[in-house]
């Protein structure tokens, strides 16, 4: 199984990890805009909200391997992201248990998008209780499953409790943090 890297990946990403003991992340692909590679979707008080990691745009960004794309910390996106996550999930049952470790990863300011995403993926795997062997590709092979925000998902997860369910009903396609903050240790049952 080969997946692309993702920033606070969607639940579908972790459902795949939960069902596969060995997974490869495509490390040799070129950077692509408008993908989960540097964005995620959460549920805020105003509805679904996309959060993005700005990357350093050189003249060759779209010819750079994803594993070498650098994060741009020259804007206040990090503080804005942490504020948005805290505002959206402060009232969720399990946010308080995961917040410090999660924000610690963000506050460590990994240099590359690859490193940031890998740390987040491993954090969520650990908290969800899944232990896939995660490897990176040595040569470009392309993903065997494409998870993209602009393409319909093949994943049909069942509804779970969400903070703003009374306002919006169940909203699918969110980052795995929505599942973890709302369901905590029961998240693994949802994924399987």
Structure characterization notes:
The protein is an alpha/beta fold and about 190 residues long. It is built from 7 helices and 5 strands; from the N terminus they run βαβββαααβααα. It has helices spanning about 10-20, 75-90, 95-105, 115-130, 165-170, 175-185, 185-190, and strands at about 1-5, 20-25, 40-45, 45-50, 135. The strands form 2 sheets. The protein has a 3-stranded parallel sheet, with no helix packed on it. A two-stranded antiparallel sheet has the order 3-4. Helix 2 (about 75-90) packs antiparallel against helix 3 and helix 3 runs antiparallel to helix 4 (about 115-130). The longest helix has 16 residues, at about 115-130.
Task: Offer a quick outline of the entry.
This protein is α/β, with parallel strands linked by helices. 35% of the residues lie in helices and 11% in strands.
**Rounded Rg:** 16 Å
Number of helices: 7
Q: What is the H-and-E element order?
A: EHEEEHHHEHHH
Q: Separation of termini?
A: 17 Å
Strand content: 5-15%
Tell me, what's the shape? globular
What is the percent of helical residues?
A: 25-40%
């Amino acid at each position: 199984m080969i997946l692309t890297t993702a920033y606070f990946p969607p639940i579908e990403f972790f459902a795949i990890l939960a069902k596969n003991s060995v997974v490869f992340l495509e490390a040799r692909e070129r950077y692509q805009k408008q993908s989960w590679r540097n964005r995620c979707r959460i549920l805020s008080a105003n509805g679904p909200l996309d959060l993005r990691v700005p990357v350093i745009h050189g003249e060759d960004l779209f010819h750079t391997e994803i594993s070498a794309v650098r994060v741009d910390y020259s804007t206040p996106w990090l503080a804005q992201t942490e504020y948005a996550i805290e505002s959206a999930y402060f009232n969720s049952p399990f946010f308080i248990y995961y917040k410090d470790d999660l924000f610690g990863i963000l506050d460590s300011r990994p240099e590359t998008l690859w490193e940031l995403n890998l740390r987040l993926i491993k954090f969520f795997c650990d908290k969800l209780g899944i232990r896939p062997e995660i490897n990176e590709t040595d040569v470009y092979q392309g993903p065997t499953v494409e998870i993209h925000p602009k393409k319909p998902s093949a994943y049909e997860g069942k509804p779970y409790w969400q903070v703003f369910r009374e306002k919006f009903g169940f909203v699918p396609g969110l980052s795995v943090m929505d599942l973890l903050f709302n369901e905590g240790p029961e998240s693994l049952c949802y994924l399987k």
